[in-house]
């Protein structure tokens, strides 16, 4: 089952892997033609009722695969209003090949009867697909009613026109088909219809779902009406033995788009952390390391934030690890756990949603296994994430992200990133993204963006990058320049 948002992400990732949408449309149209051939013999009258988006585009392609039939290709609208380049190119291809087409701009002129007054044997419903919003307008609404009134067999492309692909519900009239040809994966509630549903493989490689790509950035587009706080408030709990690590995490969270980032750190380092960066808000607690007596205070602070990042520069003093365990046991929110704090996770009983960001050494210390081959490693990480009941982001040349069910691979990054501090940056980005998106997706995109930022630095300056170089590049790494 796939939603239209995820389909759009996968589609974009496929394009980034070299399989552009127009190529997918060719497969979609071919699949529609195959179903038509299964339901009507050559020579039968087939009318394709086409909308102005890519749903219509699929039918323009199908028409090229159905030349032995008595075809009518009807576009609802003027050709100039076709809304995508690829649909327009396929419309033009019909004209170039002298396959007859018609247009209908006025619902009063819409009729399924051809010039000879005969009704079609089969109608292809390609008016509205995943791009529908609200009830069908005219002339689509009239066409829906005419299609439902006709005796013809009806084959809907992707979803019945008028049905919302994500909810399976119709806001107004909707086509009642005999068959539906949908693409790549089943769509919500199609199986509830009294229709044969074919899920056609349109050649989207598995990698478009597995490898994190530019399509995964789509949900991070911002609403122009956003308010402060909509993009997350993040608390970094770190520092004591170190001051750079919590600062890097906090700066990275800001660069990844968080609205407010606070650092909770021991008094002994608070001034130093603040002096690194005026964008940060520092909340200090007494002493020179995190200890159990600070847990209540940290818990109160954490309750005011969307996510907490636990670990950067905290050190591994026994008292500190006890405090991390105490905190996590009482915490029910979302926390990113990194560095020394990771070793506490397997023993802790918590309702929190944890995103753990170990490198392979830290993973072993947590009780997890690793392997050289990334596919084997992905299986091991998936099993261990399921066992822990938390999200794992295991860092490596191929980052593996898994919640035990969904497993993603991040392939960005380069050997320059073995330098200290890049992990602190990654934890910060993860925390920021997890404050607005579900944690597995947040972790996947964080791994992708962090690696991409590193690739941008190395492309410009060569190796010798330092962690602070990554910070400026994170906003660019979160942006999709687009494929078309
Ligand atoms: N990877 C894939 O999933 C592929 C899917 N393909 C097909 O593309 C459509 C989705 O195409 P899209 O252009 O995004 O949208 P639609 O064609 O569904 O509709 C857009 C079109 O309709 C107008 N519109 C929207 N709402 C209404 C309304 N209520 N009344 C009238 N008109 C409306 C809007 O203005 C646009 O003009 C998907 O379903 C698949 O069939 C491709 O094959 C590529 C691979
Ligand atoms: K349709």
Give a short summary of the structure:
The chain contains 15 helices and 16 strands.
Notes on the protein architecture:
- The chain is α/β, with parallel strands linked by helices.
- The protein contains 15 helices and 16 strands.
- It starts with a helix and ends in a 7-residue tail after the last helix.
- Residues 7, 11, 21, 24-25, 28, 51-56, 58, 83-84, 128-137, 140, 157-158, 183 line the site of ligand LP7C6HRI.
- Ligand LP7C6HRI binds at residues 7, 11, 21, 24-25, 28, 51-56, 58, 83-84, 128-137, 140, 157-158, 183.
- Keywords: ATP-binding, Isomerase, Lyase, Metal-binding, Multifunctional enzyme, NAD, NADP, Nucleotide-binding, Potassium.
- (6S)-NADPHX binds at residues 54-58, 129-135, 158, 245, 313, 359, 424.
- It holds the Pfam family Carb_kinase.
Fold topology:
Elements: H1 4-16, H2 21-39, E1 45-50, H3 54-64, E2 70-76, H4 85-96, E3 101-104, E4 122-126, H5 140-149, E5 153-157, E6 179-183, E7 196-200, H6 207-210, E8 233-237, H7 244-255, E9 260-266, H8 267-276, E10 281-285, H9 295-302, E11 307-310, H10 318-330, E12 334-337, E13 353-356, H11 360-365, H12 374-388, E14 391-394, E15 399-402, E16 407-410, H13 422-434, H14 439-461, H15 467-477
Parallel strand pairs: 1-2, 1-4, 2-3, 4-5, 5-6, 6-7, 8-9, 8-11, 9-10, 11-12, 12-13, 13-14
Antiparallel strand pairs: 14-15, 15-16
The site of potassium ion (K) has 11 residues, from strand 4 and strand 5.
């Amino acid at each position: 089952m796939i939603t239209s948002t995820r389909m759009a992400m996968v589609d974009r990732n496929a394009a980034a892997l070299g399989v552009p949408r127009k190529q997918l449309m060719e497969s979609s149209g071919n699949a529609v033609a195959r179903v038509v051939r299964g339901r009507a013999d050559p020579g039968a009258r087939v009318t394709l009722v086409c909308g102005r988006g890519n749903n219509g585009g699929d039918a323009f392609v199908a028409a090229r695969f159905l030349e032995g039939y008595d075809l009518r290709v009807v576009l609802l609208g003027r050709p100039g209003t076709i809304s995508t380049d690829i649909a327009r190119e396929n419309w033009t291809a019909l004209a170039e090949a002298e396959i007859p087409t018609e247009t209908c701009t006025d619902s009063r002129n819409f009729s399924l009867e051809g010039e000879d007054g005969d009704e079609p044997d089969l109608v292809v419903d390609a008016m509205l697909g995943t791009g529908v919003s609200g009830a069908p307008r005219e002339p689509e609404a009239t066409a829906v009613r005419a299609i439902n009134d006709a005796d013809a067999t009806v084959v809907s492309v992707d979803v019945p026109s008028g049905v919302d692909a994500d909810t399976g519900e119709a806001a107004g009239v909707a086509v009642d088909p005999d068959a539906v040809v949908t693409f790549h994966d089943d769509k919500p509630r199609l199986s509830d219809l009294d229709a044969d549903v074919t899920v056609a493989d349109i050649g989207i490689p598995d990698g478009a779902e597995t490898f994190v790509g530019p399509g995964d950035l789509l949900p991070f587009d911002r609403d122009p009406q956003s308010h402060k706080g909509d993009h997350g408030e993040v608390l970094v709990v770190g520092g004591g033995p170190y001051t750079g690590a919590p600062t890097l995490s906090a700066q990275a969270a800001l660069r990844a788009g968080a609205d407010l980032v606070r650092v909770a750190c021991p008094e002994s380092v608070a001034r130093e952390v603040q002096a690194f960066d005026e964008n940060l808000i520092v909340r200090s607690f007494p002493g020179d390391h995190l200890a159990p007596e600070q847990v209540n205070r940290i818990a109160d602070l954490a309750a005011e934030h969307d996510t907490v990042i636990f670990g950067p520069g905290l050190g591994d003093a026994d008292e500190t690890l006890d405090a991390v365990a105490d905190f996590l046991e009482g915490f029910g929110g979302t926390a990113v756990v990194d560095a020394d704090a990771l070793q506490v996770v397997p023993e802790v009983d918590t309702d929190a949603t944890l995103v753990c960001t170990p490198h392979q050494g830290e993973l072993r210390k947590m009780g997890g296994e690793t392997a050289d081959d990334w596919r084997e490693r992905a299986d091991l990480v998936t099993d261990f994430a399921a066992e822990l009941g938390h999200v794992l982001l295991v860092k490596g040349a191929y980052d593996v992200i898994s919640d035990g069910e969904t497993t993603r691979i991040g392939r960005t990054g380069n050997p320059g990133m073995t330098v200290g501090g890049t992990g602190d940056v990654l934890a910060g980005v993860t925390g920021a993204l997890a404050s607005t998106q579900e944690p597995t997706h947040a972790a996947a995109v964080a791994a992708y963006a962090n690696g991409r930022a590193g690739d941008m630095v190395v492309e410009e300056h060569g190796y010798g990058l330092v962690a602070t170089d990554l910070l400026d590049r994170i906003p660019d790494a979160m942006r999709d320049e687009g494929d078309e």
